[in-house]
Amino acid sequence: MRLRRRVRRAESAALLALFAGAAALTALALLALTPAAESARGPQLAALLAAASWLLSLAWSWWRLRSRWRDPARLVARLGPQHRALRSDLLSSVQLAGAAPSTCSPTLLAALARQTSEALRQLPPAGVLTPPSWRPAALLGGSAALAWTAALAWHPGYWALAARQLVDAVRAAPQVARQPLVGAVVLEYRYPAYMGRAVVRVPDTTGDITAPPGTQVLVRATSTVPVSHADLVVSGGDGGLALRQPLGVGPHGVLSGVLTVGDAARYHFELLTGGARALRDPIERRIEIEPDLGPKVALVGPPNDTAVNARQQIELGFGAEDDWGLSQVRFVYRIDTQPPTSRTLWQHPVIGAPARYASGTHVWDLGALELAGTFTLRYWIEATDNDVIHGPTSTRSSVQRLTIVNREQQHAQTLGQQRQLLEQALTLLAEHLLLPSSRPRSLRHPPAPAPGGSRLAALLEQQTRWVAALRALNQQLRRDPLVSAVVIRSVAALVERWHALLRSAPTGTAAAPSYYRRSIVALERDTLLLADLIDEQQLQTLGVTARELQSDRARLATLIARWREAPSPALRARILREMERLGQRATQLMQATNRLHATLPDEYLNASAVEGLAVGRDLEQLRRLFHARQLGGVEALMAQLDGKLDQLQRLLDANVEQFRSARLDERERVWHAALGTLHELQRQQQQLAGATESLVRSYRQRGAQLLEDRLAGLVARQQPRAEQVQRHLRTTAPQRLASYHREEIERTLRWTGWLQERLAAHDLDQAAQLAQRLADGLEQVGADLREDTLGDDVPGWREPQDRAIAHVERALGLAQQIAEDLEQALPRPSTLLREPERRQLRELTQQQRGLAKQAAGLERTRDGDVAGDLLGERGRELLGQARRMMRDATGQLGGLEPQRAHSAQQGALQQLAELQLLLEQSRRPGPAEGAGGERERVAIPGAESFAPPPAFRRELLDAMAESAPSSYAQQVKQYYRELVR
């Protein structure tokens, strides 16, 4: 029993020591469960698993020891091999003590027990607890120590936090003070590097913190009581302890420390006074997270569901903005149900300040997709910010759609629909001519038939169905990119004429003869017109195919040049595909030419000349030379092919012009007359504008001479105002202001600089114009700032907006004062004009009035007139605007305001130039009416200089600042305001 007690005490002491260590470390792990950082989850889990495994091992070891203590044989076996005699005596004593009394002598057994007990008493502990007996405890302790060491190396801060919390748990809770223990708190925000924001110091605050995650906040406060130690204690959202940050204690009780913002929480100060008394500040201060909103993305492209072909180029404009910086902008598209494909349009450089906005254009070449058939393309823009704390946030623009169509098939369907309509017209004409009546002496003036009422109703129903089919054809023509504007307008005028004819249909049989005569004349005219329009479109289609051949040849030349610089198997395969496509298109052109030649005479289509160019043979030779890698021969043949394609284009265009002159003579006569009238109007208006400009320069020079004596004082009064405007504008560009507002303000800053330069040069006339332009621009900037409510739900968003509005309003008042002073100082034109100049103004007034009458004469068209069909709705609108501007110029010249008259004259010239371009494009398929040629670019408005909405606003502001006719000033201003919203 004595041996059993000694062994049990020794082994139990070892196990209890290990158990105490496990309990302490488990307590640390449990106390460290409060941190919310994701980086602490791994060490927490590892620590808890190690502690649980250790406790289970301790329980199992304890059970094993108890079983060994109860078994005498196993207990005797604990003696080392060096005590074999003692082991034998001990085992004999134990076995004989449990045997029957008759087995041995009790006296001898008692003597053996006394002798063995005396020997065990003299035995040292090392002889009882041998190294093998310590092995389980050693293995258990070693494995646990290894697990805890790994967890400590994984996250050292985790264990420091756990240790502090264990100390805090043991320490007595501090007493809450009745009065605040610290005064005003000074906060200094040091934002993460990816934001690129400057350090912000906020003095005399309540201590509430609002910052994005990852911000380091330097906290400074002054203690109101003597203090020997101070802590800043952060509690999580559930009220549990999250962090205890020691604070430095400086002279005069100044406390300071750094706090890193992670999640929304609360914090307070705990102080240890000189008497070792722990006090807690009664004020709980908030830590709020400033939200990181995703980027704002804008995409400008063709209207949704625009029909394009598989080889066109789509021009897109994009703009992205993020308050804290962008990392990249991607273009993403999806073909039907295929996985999305993306490409990077903009990437922030590795070195440099964060870019808060990015913009640009992207030309999407659909030919590179190598699509064949009909598809739906969905595309959008994705922008990603550079948040390195919680990970990047991506935002995408609205999803746009394009429909890939086969233009040739679509146009073939349109021509088939026109042929069906032509057959219906011929059938309807035959029905009219076969009415019961005497034989007509002339088809154009037949005798009046006398059908019954039922026959009249049947014919009216046929006419109604034919007009409905005509209306459907008109809609199909507008959707077909290979149909010119003139054809569309011709069919639209035909629809209107037949609507008017049906509205005049008689209700009884008495008036039927006159109606039938008009119907027959209309049917004869319109069937011939439809047939001519079909032939014209077929000839135009040949020209379109020839232009596409030229475009494909240019693309092939670009690919060959690239292959010469950097050959690659993929590029070579693409060149061969382009050559094959060129050959197929040349074959298609020849087949279409032969088909059309069967119905048109040689005077309209010289098929033999087209065939003699042998374009298809040259393309086959080009393919063989490229296969043989004879680049010299390829370049020579490409140059020869270029000349042949130009000749083919001129030949086909001449065929179309000849056909129009012979078959559509009335329409061509009116078209050439309208174009000639426009040219003459432009020439005369240009002369009048030049004469007016010379007159304005003359009297301006005299006005500057009159102001020379008081010029210095006037400029000296305006320069300080311009400098104040500049200071106010520079103050309105804080970090939190939206990018488009900053760009508008930067533009007005440039105008202010130009104004200062003109004032320094004593150029009052230009300075007055710039001052008015600056005032108008500042008024628009203020309106935009007041209307911008996108970020009102974000804390702290509105404050910089309001400050900027206040500065802009002050700058606007100063700019208006400058403009008014300069306007009042400049002499009026009526006081500077001499008598010869007044006579010249009267002559210019008469000439301008005559031009306005000529424009009015061109604008007036009868219903169904060919000139009206050629101009179209947009053309009549442009002509009306030009005539109104001419009329305004006439009034301003008569009112002795040549400068305003010159602005109106320039506006009229611009309208006439746009009208001329529209009229020239109206006879051929192109971007004006559809997607244009197969390789033509589908452009966005203002594509050459597209920038995102901020820059778009800038261009509009620049345009708005130009002088407008006085009678339209308010309307123009309102138009631009609505446009940029």
Helix-strand layout with pairing:
Layout: H1 2-31, H2 41-70, H3 72-76, H4 84-97, H5 106-121, H6 125-128, H7 131-154, H8 156-170, E1 175-176, E2 182-190, E3 200-205, E4 209-211, E5 216-223, E6 229-235, E7 241-249, E8 254-260, E9 265-272, E10 278-280, E11 285-289, E12 296-300, E13 306-308, E14 313-335, E15 341-347, E16 355-365, E17 375-385, E18 394-396, E19 400-404, H9 407-433, H10 453-479, H11 485-503, H12 512-565, H13 569-597, H14 607-612, H15 615-627, H16 631-663, H17 665-706, H18 711-731, H19 739-760, H20 764-787, H21 798-825, H22 829-832, H23 835-859, H24 866-894, H25 898-921, E20 937-938, H26 949-961, H27 969-979
Q: On the 0-100 scale, what is the average pLDDT?
A: 74
Assembly state (oligomeric): single chain
N/C terminus separation: 98 Å
Estimated structural class: alpha+beta
Strand content: 5-15%
Q: Shape, please?
A: extended
Helix content: 55-70%
Enumerate the spans where pLDDT stays under 50 for 5 or more consecutive residues: 31-39, 437-450, 861-867, 927-933, 941-981
Mind telling me the C-alpha Rg?
Answer: 48 Å
Number of helices: 27
- Total number of strands: 20
Please summarize the sheet with the most strands.
11 strands, mixed
